Q: What sequence folds into this?
């Protein structure tokens, strides 16, 4: 089948993946792998830009993330799953692109500015962190991706990439690199079980794809709902209530969910009943994922073999682009 | 023979090499290649950090610089001569080292600060230029060089490298990288023929190693001497007079040179006589270099073959180091 284009996407291996990832990106990848050339990168090099003190954690999570991919149905026969650090061409492209971006431009990248605040670097911002948008441009352009699924907050990254693409092609007088488009997922972010706006690996508010049944039950039980819904008979708030947001995202029986919402809104429906149902829904959704995950994790050597194979494939594609880039820059020594 | 250590040195391919290079570094390399493992890098990637608009110039000068090396007697059988961009490991190491240096530290590198002023970047400092000290640390450490011949003004670069070495070894708990020492050449800088403090490729004040006899004669004739030495009978200034500095650097007949100095100092010796003698001295020095250069440049394909062979050798050594680095960082996927 004729593919519609090329996607580059991926995750930083800083923890296992959770329901937020499923909703925000994984589900989409499973769908798009039939329609696009899809490259999914486990971004260990990028993860190290702010986790360089704990490389072992990054290393371990490379396997965990790969298990999550396989468990949700990202198929290595359809999607190229690869490890960033195994593709030296990405570092080489970064070196050339660093010349095309000014120091000032980097300082004013809105995404990076926000992240620097969040990460409390203070005066000690690693240079690697400041320059990671350039490294991202290398990742995207190496595979000639024209579609990059990102959150709204990551749009400046795509702009930065396209600035580099235009600067390169203009300067070296060749249409070597191609511009890409951001694809913003339709479903908004999944809130955390604590009611926080975003479920996050390290926010202690996530339901992980590999969570066991008892852990799932415990997490659902402790979920934040409507803090004003004190007595069963009180009317409860449905909009913005994480329990109902999760039901909308993962439940199949929409009639039943609507009934529950109505009942909750007019009062008389206890949180525990909604939560029990949510547990059932999530457990039904997660059980096959959890089981596949367990099955794959029995043979981690096989998982690594898959990653190495994907990385070889990615290496070849990136090498093609790098050769074109070097040729345009008169660096094709022979 | 047991080697005394490993040297990493090199040049940016932004122009042919001149007498200043010979005195400041090339002569030393010819001597040291018997005593040390010597890696000489043609730094095309680094040259691009401030010449990215003119890559063809950089490309052409890679060959010119290699011809200069061969002409002065740097022997590819004793010295590994290689092209920086052919060693992807250098880019990879740079990526990892970028995490170990803060953004602020880069801003305050004295060498870079000075160069930024000289280069008139204004607000548009390329990020690649700001980060090149980190790239230099990659160059040095990739070959486990313990001796790096640099000018006095480049000492902060060596400090930056050693900071990275210590940070890496401490953080990853392994003595993978080794510290290096700056070797400051004993002979001070050669002034330009215009009397400027430094002979420079792009300062229009250089005598190049490949300059033809007639060009050499013209350049010596127009040399700056003592501006107060207006009439032959006037006493002339010897100290700081480029003509005598060159004679000291390249002349062999020290008795004759002392006589000329005395005569010039007390008056009665015209500039043109000293210059005629200097021309003879320089021409005697440059003639064999010029001839070897011509000989080698008849077969540039052969020169490139030599560079590719050296680059393969450098690649292997850098790969060894990179594997150790990656292993220490738990990035040795297999």
A:
């Amino acid at each position: 089948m004729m593919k519609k284009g090329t996607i580059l996407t991926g995750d930083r291996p800083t923890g296992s993946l959770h329901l937020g990832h499923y909703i925000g990106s994984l589900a989409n990848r499973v769908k798009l792998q039939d329609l696009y050339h899809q490259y999914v990168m486990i971004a260990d090099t990028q993860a190290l830009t702010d986790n360089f003190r704990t490389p072992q954690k990054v290393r371990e999570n490379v396997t965990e993330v790969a298990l999550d991919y396989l468990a949700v149905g990202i198929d290595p026969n359809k999607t190229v799953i690869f490890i960033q650090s195994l593709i030296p061409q990405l570092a080489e492209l970064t070196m050339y692109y660093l010349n095309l971006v000014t120091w000032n431009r980097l300082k004013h990248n809105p995404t990076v500015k926000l992240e620097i605040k969040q990460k409390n670097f203070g005066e000690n911002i690693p240079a690697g962190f400041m320059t990671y948008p350039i490294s991202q441009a290398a990742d995207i352009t190496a595979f000639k991706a024209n579609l990059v699924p990102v959150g709204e907050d990551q749009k400046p990254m795509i702009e930065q990439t396209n600035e580099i693409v235009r600067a390169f092609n203009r300067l070296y007088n060749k249409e070597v690199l191609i511009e890409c488009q951001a694809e913003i997922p339709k479903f908004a972010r999944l809130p955390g079980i604590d009611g926080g706006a975003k479920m996050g690996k390290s926010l202690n508010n996530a339901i992980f794809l590999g969570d066991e049944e008892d852990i799932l039950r415990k997490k659902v039980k402790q979920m934040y709902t409507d803090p004003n819904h004190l007595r069963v008979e009180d009317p409860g708030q449905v909009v913005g209530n994480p329990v109902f947001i999760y039901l909308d995202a993962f439940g199949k029986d929409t009639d039943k969910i609507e009934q529950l919402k109505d009942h909750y809104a007019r009062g008389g429906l206890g949180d525990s009943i909604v939560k029990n149902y949510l547990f059932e829904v999530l457990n039904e959704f997660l059980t096959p994922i959890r089981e596949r995950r367990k099955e794959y994790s029995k043979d981690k050597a096989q998982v690594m073999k898959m990653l190495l194979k994907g990385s070889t494939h990615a290496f070849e594609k990136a090498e093609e682009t790098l050769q074109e880039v070097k040729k345009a820059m008169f660096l094709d020594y022979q």
In short: Residues 65 and 185 of chain A are 20 Å apart (CA to CA).
